[in-house]
Amino acid sequence: MKILMVSLDYPPTVGGITAHVYELSQALKNIGCDVTVATKFLDKDQKAFETVDGIDIYRFDLKYIGFTYGYQINKFLKKLVKENHFDIIHIHGMRPLEFYNIKDIPLVYTNHTSGYLKRIKKGGYRIPLLKRLFSKPKLFLAPSEELLEVPFSFEAKKVFISNGVISSKFTRNEEIRKKLRTELSIKDDEKLAIMTRRMVWKNGINYLALATKYIKNDKLKLLFIGDGEQFQEVKNILEENFKDRFILLGSKKHHEIIDYYSASDLSILPSLMEATSISGLEAMAASLPLVGTKVGGIPVLIKDGINGYLCEPANPKDLAEKIDKILEEDLIKMGKNSKKFVEEKFDWIQIANKTLNEYKELLK
């Protein structure tokens, strides 16, 4: 089967949608599909066409102002479809849907987190716009049950298919753990919690910063990998509440992040909106237990008392209590449960097979 993936987010950018599109494309390729990706130029040094990791990548320019982007993308896709045969077009993110009007190829759409939920929350003129956009796909996928909850009806079949992870990429390396903990000045009796999140509203990192005021365990240190609009706010709160007990590494490429999971003892997901969190899945694959909020797909990942604890969103006191609680547990045992869970439920090959089965249903 020949599949065209369309996404503005693709490596070398970072983030959940980027990881989803890349790993799903790789897994589909590995089970025998022919996958092509259409994405935007990030800089002038990139090529208009190249093959990377076995995937053909076509890049388009986005010029002028934002409301014309959808038109430009659709024009590019029409040209690409004329020059290549595709059985399925699979769009990630709303922008490519806006002017989409290719009629003779089944369209699949994956509804990723923040943009959709913000539009639903604001309501008003956005609801008719969403009705128009969601009338276009034949198959409507989402990586959390929450993202399937659309407040109006439309024809597309709705299916929850979670994000995934390649567990073997994140196997803990004790040699790397020792090296990095030395570099980070983490003592043997200290526990390190890792957050690999962009510091933007939906990820709730500011609430974790606020929670440090209430954390009682004095052996905990925090490692943040990511930047964003809340970076300075988070830094200021940590300086006040958790001085000398936090590390801000800023943004890193995905392959640079992996080793830091080995250096860590647990991971924290303080999200306000979330699908089946890819950073959470990666932490689990690295044998880390989790503390996370009861939003979106996070409760799918965390089983209370087995591989972590759930807390209320936007509640620093509850978050601090759950962090203190998990630090009293056997973190290694909980981490093993995390690893087992992702291997059984969230391998990308399993996710790709589920997705392919849905594609095949469209083509019947």
Automatic annotation (TrEMBL):
<dbReference type="InterPro" id="IPR001296">
    <property type="entry name" value="Glyco_trans_1"/>
</dbReference>
<dbReference type="Pfam" id="PF00534">
    <property type="entry name" value="Glycos_transf_1"/>
</dbReference>
<feature type="domain" description="Glycosyl transferase family 1">
    <location>
        <begin position="177"/>
        <end position="339"/>
    </location>
</feature>
<dbReference type="Pfam" id="PF13439">
    <property type="entry name" value="Glyco_transf_4"/>
</dbReference>
<dbReference type="InterPro" id="IPR028098">
    <property type="entry name" value="Glyco_trans_4-like_N"/>
</dbReference>
<dbReference type="InterPro" id="IPR050194">
    <property type="entry name" value="Glycosyltransferase_grp1"/>
</dbReference>
<feature type="domain" description="Glycosyltransferase subfamily 4-like N-terminal">
    <location>
        <begin position="14"/>
        <end position="150"/>
    </location>
</feature>
<protein>
    <submittedName>
        <fullName>Glycosyltransferase family 4 protein</fullName>
    </submittedName>
</protein>
